[in-house]
Specification:
Layout: H1 2-40, H2 46-55, H3 57-82, H4 85-91, H5 96-139, E1 150-154, E2 157-164, E3 170-177, E4 185-197, E5 200-214, E6 219-231, H6 234-241, H7 251-255, H8 267-279, H9 282-296, H10 306-332, H11 337-373
Antiparallel strand pairs: 1-2, 2-3, 3-4, 4-5, 5-6
Helix pairs in contact: 1-2, 1-3, 1-5, 2-5, 3-5, 3-9, 5-9, 8-10, 8-11, 9-10, 9-11, 10-11
């Protein structure tokens, strides 16, 4: 029996690793399209892009793992059914719980990994991702200036760039600055260039004019210049004043959020994030129990179990969508938080009930045979 358990566990582990790797690569590709702009469009070093890609891994791995585990369970047990291996194992005395044992062992291990990710690694990854994006925006500000569109460069600053050259020169600049109340400033220049210094990032513009309007008096002052320096440290100020998002805060901070009065307006969001971290890893165990229950309970079909697989996938979609919707509702109203625990408990309880009922039916049938023979 131990050999059969090890055999099933090995096949399930290999399948789970391959599915996880495949889904991870797909998500990485979609994320890279956003992050690659930092390197392609303008001047950020390649190592920064690699760091950004690396720190995104824990943020979505906790979501990928339960789905990957379910896919591995469905694939492995369905293949063994089509090859009649499960029939042989049952003939050798392995019951429903014995067949499900390797999957449940793997599910418990993945659940523990999920808790490590959601409680510790994912918040740290979110913080590091925010720090790296802040570094990119403060040190490589012009990377985010797209050609031919009006770019929101921060609170009250809009920048238009007609063209950006390979050497970093900006052509056809229009900068509209409303940071000073009642005195909007518009700067138009033929060209410009980013300059890094001790004071921070500045844009030096050439051959243009600066227009300032006093809204109180309606007077406009205009200045023509050959060279003019524009303060472009908007990102630094924004990121310095920015409060960390709930996903960036450690679990310890979420537990002791009441000790910080400045976080009182965000109490609902922080509480919902904390309970979401507690519940989401349980899906690894729930999806696995539901998968093995759907495939192992009832009669075997050597030609495959497509209907059962479709039913399992549909249940997963409903449960995952429900968890996401309830999380969004809990952000605004913490009264919905108990529903998170209900959603993650449903697949565990349903899967356990189906397999337990199958076991009880088997025991009754076994006891009925000697009685009939007598």
């Amino acid at each position: 029996m131990k050999r059969l358990t090890a055999y099933l566990l090995r096949h399930l582990t290999v399948a789970a690793i391959f599915v996880t790797a495949g889904l991870t690569l797909v998500i990485w590709l979609t994320q890279s399209l956003r992050l690659l702009e930092i390197v392609v469009d303008g001047g950020a070093p390649i190592y920064l892009f690699l760091q950004l890609m690396l720190v995104t891994l824990p943020t979505f791995l906790s979501i990928v793992l339960p789905i990957s585990l379910l896919a591995a369970v469905l694939f492995t047990y369905n293949r063994l059914t089509m090859d009649s291996e499960l029939v042989v194992m049952r003939s050798a005395g392995l019951g429903t719980w014995g067949l499900a044992k390797p999957a449940l062992i793997l599910a418990l291990a993945v659940t523990m990994i999920g808790y490590v990710l959601t409680l510790y690694l994912a918040p740290a990854a979110h913080r590091e991702l925010a720090r790296l994006e802040a570094l990119a925006k403060s040190d490589f500000s012009t990377v985010f200036l797209r050609e031919g569109v009006f770019n929101e460069a921060g609170d009250g600053v809009t920048v238009y760039v007609r063209r950006r050259m390979q050497d970093g020169e900006l052509q056809g600049l229009l900068i509209h600055d409303t940071r000073t109340p009642g005195k909007p400033v518009t700067i138009m220049a033929d060209r410009g260039r980013t300059v890094e210094g001790e004071a921070g990032t500045r844009v030096v513009v050439f051959d243009g004019n600066r227009q300032e309007v006093d809204l109180a008096t309606g007077r406009m002052s205009q200045l023509y210049f050959d060279r003019y320096a524009v303060d472009f440290r908007v990102f630094e100020k924004q990121l310095g004043d920015r409060l960390p998002d709930a996903r960036e805060r450690s679990t310890f901070d979420l537990l002791h959020a009441e000790d910080h009065p400045e976080l009182a307006p965000f109490k609902n969001r922080l509480t919902a994030e904390l309970h979401q971290r507690y519940t989401s890893p349980v899906f690894s165990l729930g999806f696995t129990m539901m998968g093995v229950a759907i495939l192992l309970v009832g009669e075997f079909n050597r030609r495959g179990q497509s209907r059962r697989i479709i039913a399992a996938v549909a249940c997963v979609l409903v449960l995952q969508s429900s968890a996401l919707g309830i999380t969004n509702l809990a952000v605004n109203n913490n009264a919905f938080i108990p529903l998170l625990y209900v959603v993650v408990a449903i697949p565990v309880l349903v899967g356990g009930f189906l397999m337990l009922r199958q076991r009880l039916r088997g025991s009754r049938a076994f006891r009925a045979r000697p009685a009939a023979a007598g």
